[in-house]
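Hey team,

Filing this mostly as a record. A colleague (T.K.) asked me to run one chain through the structure pipeline before their review meeting, and I want the input and output archived in the tracker in case anyone asks later how it was produced. No errors, nothing strange. Just documentation.

Input sequence:
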Amino acid sequence: MIQGPPLAYYDRAFLDSDEGRPVRILSEYLGPLRALCAAGVTETVVFFGSARLEASGPLGRYIVEATELARLVTQWSRASAEGRLVVCSGGGPGIMEAANRGALLGGGRSVGLNIGLPHEQRPNEYITPGLGFQFHYFFMRKLWFAHLARALVVFPGGFGTFDELFEILTLAQTRKLDRQIPVLLYGSAYWQEVVNFPALVRHGTIAAEDLELFEFVDEPAAALARLQARITPFAPAAKEPLLAKSRSPARA
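Output structure:
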């Protein structure tokens, strides 16, 4: 029997080609959606922060405090929302690993959205099996950070953390999302040194009210209290992820 050519969706050469790029991009949306629906993950608290921080380093306290905050968030979720509020990180080392580890210590699940990089990034061992995802495209990874987020906690970080933070702040500033996502900048001394937010207002590049899109926190207990105050009451359990949607022009 003569063997015909492979079907396009089984053809690795096609899938890896420039022409197959739209299929790869769509797969990085539909694959996680299918897995999250199957696992019943509908709402997340997203932790951002540097992959380079170590517990023994000069910013090591943030590793300890990210672990503790993730544990507290997980315990709160289990007590008040049947565990529906799930910790989510970028899936790698440093602050990301601390967040996944804290969720495990709190007796709950956590999501890891890992990205393939030449260095630094490797999936950490504390991500819940089945809830770890590998991305090639940064923009699809950032979409999934925003898609399920009920809140964002941003620990000290570098370019990657800035990219993720300002993506959410831009969506909030421009009111492109149909729900508010509270943003907590953890470590006020760090953030006020590395980003001069008041200068942006002074130069007229943002409005004064844009400073209300985020707030500073410095302790796990205080951060948990702010999350409890800012996250809207839990809706009845949803069967599918509560995706943040872009506002249409008619609703803007």
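Quick notes for T.K.: The mean pLDDT is 91. The CA atoms of residues 5 and 108 lie 47 Å apart.
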